[in-house]
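Researcher: I've been going back and forth with a colleague about how Organic hydroperoxide reductase OsmC/OhrA might be arranged in three dimensions. Neither of us has a model we trust, so I'd like an independent prediction. The organism is Nocardioides aromaticivorans, in case that matters for your notes. Sequence below.
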Amino acid sequence: MASHHYALDLTWQGNRGTGTSGYRDYGRDVLLRAAGKPDLAGSADPTFRGDATRWNPEELLLAALAQCHLLSYLHSAVNHGVVVTSYDDSPVGTMAQVGQGGHFTEVVLRPRVTVADVAMVATAREIHGEASTNCFIAASVNFPVRHEPVIEVAPA
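Model: Here is an independent structure prediction for Organic hydroperoxide reductase OsmC/OhrA. You can compare it with whatever you and your colleague have in mind.
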């Protein structure tokens, strides 16, 4: 078994002068940094007093699931002889708040995949299951990650 390690730096930027002296007295802004990558501005969801112009953890989890599925899917496509010429997704996630905490109840990935030939359509649809099984992030969460793919054929 191979081990892979990941690291980043997170800096809270929300001290407005009195720290966490009260729930409304501090900002939720954070800065995420990783070597060799652009900085990522984060915050809480606006519902939780965050900055809507910054990425929130819930969006980042959704992005991680969608990107991981894409990368796993492209690998499966190569292995099965499916030539993908275009792929985009508009995933949605549902989170239930319970008291001050909560959890995701479901994520639905909605990939739109274009393949090079009509003969590839059935396999292109099938390999979403394989990609899901092989996605490290989907295998790490305790809620369903469903797929509603649309497969199209590139114009000749």
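Researcher: What would you highlight for our discussion?
Model: I'd start with this: The chain has a mean pLDDT of 94. After that, consider the following. Helices lie at 57-79, 121-134.
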